[in-house]
Design brief:
3% helix; 143 residues; two-stranded antiparallel sheet; mainly beta
């Protein structure tokens, strides 16, 4: 089985389709360099990562998507709120949030989906063209 990635997004931003708290420094999600996006306590907007730079050849079958998020919180009571994918600006598939508490001490990488998990997205929708597009996004919100 061929795999594409892992790739970091090259664009990080706020998606206001959920929550009311804006992310500060969302562009800092583009590398594992010890710099983080942050949001005040409350239900956050989606922290959106897009433009992953995939170059999946046409005709390939997408069997699954693995999303990994490095999480930490300065508040002991923060939780995941929503973890979604977006194709062309529209939310698709299953919300993968477990509502888990975000680590208060240090940070941890949390995995969502996997090599055989299509996030409940309809067959034929996960195409190379859709995932290669700059409008494919991974969205994460905290509470």
């Amino acid at each position: 089985m061929t795999s594409a990635g892992p790739n970091f997004p090259t664009v990080g931003g706020n998606d206001a389709s959920i929550g009311s708290v804006t992310w500060a420094n969302p562009g800092q999600i583009t590398a594992a360099d010890g710099l983080y996006a942050s949001a005040a306590y409350g239900t956050s907007h989606y922290l959106a990562g897009s433009s992953f730079g995939f170059a999946i050849p046409a005709g390939m079958t997408i069997n699954g998507i693995l999303l990994e998020v490095n999480q930490s919180s300065s508040a002991a009571y923060s939780t995941e709120n929503s973890v979604r994918l977006s194709l062309g600006g529209s939310l698709v598939g299953t919300d993968k949030s477990t509502g888990a508490t975000i680590p208060h001490s240090g940070s941890v990488w949390v995995s969502y989906g996997g090599s055989a998990d299509t996030w409940g997205i309809a067959a034929g929708t996960l195409t190379p063209a859709n995932l290669n597009a700059s409008t494919f996004a991974a969205l994460w919100s905290a509470d």
